[in-house]
Every structure is written in structure tokens, then in C-alpha cells.
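Teaching note: in complex prediction, the entire set of molecules is handled at once rather than each chain in isolation. The prompt given to students was simply: 'Predict the structure of this complex.' The entities are:
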Amino acid sequence: MPMDQAFLGRSFPFAEPYEVGIEKIRQFAEAIGDDNLLYHDRVAAQHAGHPSVVAPPTFAIQVIARAQDAVMFDPALGLDFSRVVHLDQRFEHLRAIYAGDVLSCVVTVESIKVLAGNDVLTVRTDVTDIENAPVCSAWGTLVSRAAAS
Amino acid sequence: MGNSRFPGRSVMIAFESVPVGTALPSLNLTVDRAQLVRYAGASGDFNPIHFNQRIAEAVGLPNVIAHGMLTMALSARIVTGWIGDPSAVRDLSVRFTRPVIVPDDDHGAALEISAVVGAVDAQARTARVDITAKFEGQTVLGKARCVVQLS
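The expected output is the structure of the full assembly:
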């Protein structure tokens, strides 16, 4: 079943803001094996000029995941998730994410294509802070491989 | 600091000291099953192909594979470790071209990460670092690039 082209260009605000916890940043940094003090030690981060501990650059996937899922898992879109692989990912940081941030997401469907029988979906997610200032934009492309015939 | 969107931070590497072609210190990392479990918990990505061999094989994979986002995060460490302050990362992008297969043994999968400055922007005082991540001698990421703010 092809994906619904009516989703193309539409933006989906995600209702629930993401509150960035200091322990979540530490847990994420541990999971990627990175002991950089700026990820773990609030005092060290503040000494370096930051408001609190800094999130690793790919931590934004945490922030955007539920907002993206709400769009990509929408049955009306018609993406077959059982066959999905992640093709590419990009983060553009307008500033770093910090513990204590309260972030909101808007997901926009940028591209819906069929390439060699595979469904290819690109979504952009714009992240803003509590003052509505931009923090990060992320682009992710998913491919739902055509069923073997 | 030239760019008002990015208030001054303690980035110690001067733009002038990083010409195109500069190689970053390489990074050798190992990904084992325990790390996949940790990353699943930290990221909330509980797709069973990252911890369940039976399900990985059922969808046509040779074995459990690392999360693409974990491979991306590990590859970015070559840049953040070099620059010291991860808030200097402006743009990070990768294409996932080959899975990293993580065996159920005491060693895990070895990742060899290298990087070189591929371009610089004198006006913005940024450098584009081109990252290569290899597993079993083959690249696992395509067009892996990281733009960092220098001082």
C-alpha cells in the first residue's frame, strides 16, 4: 500500500514538551561510553560557561523520537514499520541541549517517495525551547523495504 | 566569538590551527551486547533486532546489530573528544550504509574511527570534519560529517 501523499508538507506539533533531565543525559553519555565531564558534572559544565550539563550531539534523538513516532506510526500515513530501516540522520544544532531545558517539537513530512519499490520517508523535526527559540532541527529518512516477491 | 547565536564557550582549538587536511586522533571502540542493552535503555529504542538473535535472523540479519544511532553517537565522539566541548557541534549528519554486527562473545564488534578536516569556513570560523567509521575493514557510515565551531 503506498503512503498517503496528503501527509506531504504537513506539520504536526507534538503536544507534550520534553523535559531534559540531568540523570537522563548522564545515562545517555554512559551508554555511548563517553566520560566527558561536561556530560556528567554540573559544576564543571558551569565553570565552562554552560547553564548545566551538556547533552551529547545525538541526544536530540531522545527529544524528537516520540514526536516523530506520532507521525510515522499514524496508520493513515501507511508506512509499513515491520520493514523499516534508518537510512540517514542529521542534526543541526542552533545551540546545545542542556539539563533543565523544556523542549517542544514540530514534525514536518518533507518527502514521501517510492524508489525501486521501496517507500522512502523523510521527516524534519524542529525543536524549540520554553521561550520558543530554536534549539535544533533534525532530519531523518526511513526506508520501508518492498516485500520480496 | 563571531556568531551571536552561539554564546562564547570554552572551545580551545583556534580556527587558524586547523587547516583542511588536519587529521584528528583516531579512536578505536568496541561495541558489545551489554552496550546495546545500555543504549536501548538510554535511548528508548527497544527494537529486538538490537538484542534478540532469533528476531534479528527472522528479519534476514546475520545476527544482532548495533543501533544506527549508537554507531552515529560513537562516531561523533572522535570530534567531541578532540574539541573537548560538545556544544561546539553545529551540524552532524550520517548515512547508514552497513550494519555493525555484534556477536554474543566476550569481545564485541571493533569500530575503527578516523576523521579529517574536509573544509573550513573562515567567516563562520567553523570546520567540517569528515568521519570514517569502519567495522571489519569496511565503512559502515556514508557521508558522515560534523561541522564544529572553533575559537
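Point out the following to students. The helical segments of chain A are 22-31, 37-40, 42-47, 60-72. Chain A has a mean pLDDT of 93.
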